[in-house]
């Protein structure tokens, strides 16, 4: 004969099994949700989106920053040297404004020293044109700040006369926030210094 107490015990056991099952399902659901969010987060870190000319959203895989840091550093330095040393009377202000975004106060000090020395006044007075012909960059990518040495060859043109120069400069690179279009690579030149300036002849090219 079944007693009410025995029925109560069986009901409590059943309730416990139900509660355990529900708790287990909740833990599984929470674990699955956390894993899904983590996976989506990892995918978002490696994915960017671009807007096409017709307004479409296009997925664009981001490459490993470390793998292409050297490429970006070279591009940043090449852009700086071509802007800072390649100019004429009509565009030198625009070029300098763009170049100064790529470096810190050490670059600004070099610019101010050139201005004090009358470099830009001579550019205007004699209608000179500086054309950068070659930029060779050596990088030290072991750790930040990244050291560099650049050899820039440029020509100073006045009419039919062309004088060739080789400038050796050095400095370091650090990361900063990307700024489009002023600083697309997110790098900043620091401790910039012009080491030597040599006029080239046919004998010392």
Q: How would you explain this protein's 3D organization?
A:
The strands form 2 sheets. Strands 3-4-5-6-7 form a 5-stranded antiparallel beta sheet. It has a two-stranded antiparallel ribbon with strand order 1-2. A hairpin with a 5-residue loop joins strand 4 and strand 5 (146-158). It has helices at 4-45, 65-85, 92-100, 105-116, 119-125, and strands at 47-51, 57-61, 87-88, 129-140, 146-158, 161-175, 187-200. The mean pLDDT is 86. It folds into 2 domains: 4-60; 65-200, Nuclear Transport Factor 2, Chain: A. 44% of the residues lie in helices and 32% in strands. It is built from 5 helices and 7 strands, in the order αββαβαααββββ. It is an alpha+beta fold and 205 residues long.
Jot down its keywords.
7 strands; two-stranded antiparallel ribbon; 2 domains; rod-shaped; 32% strand; alpha+beta; single chain
Summarize the structure.
The chain has helices spanning 4-45, 65-85, 92-100, 105-116, 119-125, and strands at 47-51, 57-61, 87-88, 129-140, 146-158, 161-175, 187-200. It has 205 residues and is an alpha+beta fold. The model has no long low-confidence stretch (mean pLDDT 86).
- Whole-number mean pLDDT: 86
Number of strands: 7
Question: What's the number of domains?
Answer: 2
Rg, nearest Å? 32 Å
In spatial order, strands of the major sheet run 3-4-5-6-7
General shape: rod-shaped
The CATH topology name of the largest domain reads: Nuclear Transport Factor 2, Chain: A
Low-confidence stretches: none
